[in-house]
Amino acid sequence: LSQYFNMAESRIRSGKQTEIRGDKNNETNVKHVRKNKDSRRQVFIPSYTGLGLMVHLVLLITYIAVHIHGAIIFKNCPNPEKYFPGSFTFGGPWKYLTYINLWLGSIYFLLSLFGDIIPQSQIKTRLKTFLDWFFTTIVWSVALIVVIFFWSMYFIDRELIFPVYLEECIPPLLNHEWHTLPLFAVVIECVLVFHHYPSNMVAALTALGMSSVYMIWILVIYLKTQKWIYPFMKSFTPFTFVIFVIFSTFAGLLFQALGKFIAYLRWKEQFLVLNEIKNK
Questions:
Q1: Position 110 confidence tier, pLDDT thresholds 50, 70, 90
Q2: What's this model's pTM, rounded to 2 decimal places?
């Protein structure tokens, strides 16, 4: 893939020198150098090594620490049925998007770290393609939905999402680990690791599918328990539930677009190279 980047870069940029180092039997490491009148700038094609490996390792350890912290709090809670009521009913903690989001992030950073350390191969290439889709369409969107929805509801009326009595067992630090950390994690990943974004059609279908699956899951839980999983849903009618589904799907699409915009600002030259390759 780096060879295609190099070919495209050479077509769309002038005054550029290419320095190739390394043995012919090994993977070529190409560095593009562009000369300007006042400065000399180097343009690198990012990869899943070096900085990416460090980012994935640190964030994976962080997510593991969050899981351990939550397990300790749950174990030491004097009345877990009061403070973690959803864990003892149908669906367990998997009914909550916060819990699902933590595992999505954990799985992503684990697979990314694995992709960083394995040698170049067809498996690595396919894994990279899957992880790009997984992060840009699911991990990023779910993280923003969890954080933005939670804190919006919290500041409007915290009793609708995180009642005061929960702090008797759940410390503020754990609350921030659940509902703030994911935003910082995905932003760090977006800024420090380059990702290929899928087509708008693929992104839209993924958002629609993700929203549909979770809303069906919420309905299944309601039919089994006769209770909505979130306090703010207690007054929902069939009509308001449909509106909520549409709004959630639209939010997912909006957050996907926001992520792509941020990535474009950070990796503008790489996006130009990809467009050049697609238009060949």
A1: very high
A2: 0.81
